[in-house]
Amino acid sequence: MSTSILEARNITKRFGGLTANEDVNLLLAGEAGQVVSVIGPNGAGKSTLFKMLSGFLKPSSGSVLLYGQEITGMAPHRIARLGLVRTFQETTIFPDLTAMEHVSLAHQLHRQANDLEVVLRMPRARADEAALSASAAEILELMELSPVADVAARHLPQGYLRLLGIGMGLATRPRVLLLDEPYAGLNPEETNRAVMITRKIANSGISVLLVEHDMKAVMAISDFIHVLYFGKKIAEGTPEEIRNNPKVIEAYLGQEDKELGL
Ligand SMILES: Nc1ncnc2c1ncn2[C@@H]1O[C@H](COP(=O)(O)OP(=O)(O)OP(=O)(O)O)[C@@H](O)[C@H]1O
Ligand SMILES: [Mg+2]
Fold first, then answer.
1. What CATH number is attached to the domain comprising 35?
2. Has residue 108 got a pLDDT over 90?
3. Which of 102, 189, 201, 237 has the fewest CB atoms inside 10 Å of its own CB, making it the most exposed?
4. Ligand 1 neighbour 40 (Cβ under 6 A)
5. Is 184 near ligand 1, meaning CB less than 6 Å away?
6. Is 179 exposed, middle or buried (0-12, 13-18, 19+ CB in 10 A)?
7. What pLDDT shows up at residue 92?
8. Average per-residue pLDDT in the chain?
9. Ligand 1 pocket, mutate which of 12, 46, 211 (most atoms under 8 A from CB)
10. Does the CB atom of residue 15 touch ligand 1 within 6 A?
């Protein structure tokens, strides 16, 4: 039997009379480093699903398991420590800090030494610092941000800020990374670059769960796709299967700007 990495079992989320997710099942299993996408028209419940997986919303019913461990309703920081991380949004970017400082800051979440040791500058804390700055440099390299490592965020274009947000997520050493519309608002060149970098992240052994409206990007990068429609899962399969699935095509009809890129 293949290893279960992340699993949602029959999760439902109700906001008053509105059911944003209804009995949704999702299984991410097998090899680490896959890219699995969740697609669906606006309001289908994709972000709600991600928020439940990462602890930002509590499901009305159902459960979430990370490597077989029940994490339903656990606080986001505890889930992050177990290896499932949602990326930082632009709002977590500080205009005056450099790219390197942002990644180092995110790293603080994961340092091994406790605060007292840091204050007392004990050996473990010093070793941590060296390891962390090496690792921050490595992350900037992976994100292709090394050339702007020392540039303040306020001077960086949108495409770079988005990559920086993902880099900050990586600094917390996730095993599973959730990306909600990471390419939204990027121009085609920035999108291509970000898609390639997302693939590199997955190839480094991190499983990526992606919500994205850019169908060309989704079809190109995904190993597997789940489709939500009005809160329910209507299909799952490989990009090829999804592209040819009549239910999916039907769900997307009339959504000219969000077409399947057929
Ligand atoms: N906190 C909330 N309170 C009430 N309703 C909510 C809340 N969050 C989401 N909803 C509703 O739940 C439904 C699903 O929203 P969600 O944001 O998950 O959709 P989505 O698939 O991410 O859409 P989009 O593609 O536009 O980002 C929508 O009808 C939305 O209005
Ligand atoms: Mg959304």
1. 3.40.50.300
2. no
3. 189
4. yes
5. no
6. buried
7. 75
8. 90
9. 46
10. yes
